[in-house]
Write a structure and sequence with these properties.
The chain is an alpha+beta fold. The protein has 2 helices and 5 strands. It has helices at 21-27, 61-68, and strands spanning 2-7, 11-15, 46-51, 77-79, 90-94. A hairpin with a 3-residue loop joins strand 1 and strand 2. It binds FE2/S2 (inorganic) cluster.
């Protein structure tokens, strides 16, 4: 179990280990785009993973390819639908709505 904190609002969500960030946020009522419903095909769930990067799943080829086509990508960019939560608390910023 970990806690996902969304900046700048400071809202927090409890996340079970093994769940993905997008599913956790949607279940909690957070407004985050997800046009392809979590298939790494749209890039609309773009987030910056500010803290906790060591505990989450590594970027896989499909996510990497989609990020390459996404506007505003930085070194902390991830697709929320592709990030599997570990045991460490996370801090994120939603970049695309
Ligand atoms: S919901 Fe489309 S890439 Fe995540």
């Amino acid at each position: 179990m970990s806690v996902i904190t969304v900046q700048p609002s400071g809202k927090t969500y409890q996340a079970a280990s093994g769940s993905n960030i997008l599913a956790v946020l949607l279940a909690g009522g957070e407004a985050i785009a997800h046009k392809c419903d979590g298939k790494a095909e749209c890039g609309s769930c773009h987030i910056s993973l500010i803290d906790g990067r060591k505990s989450v799943s590594k970027i896989q080829p499909a996510e990497n390819e989609r990020l390459d086509m996404t506007v505003g990508v930085g070194s902390k960019s991830r697709l929320a639908c592709q990030v599997i939560v570990g045991e460490e608390d996370l801090t994120i910023e939603i970049l695309s709505i």
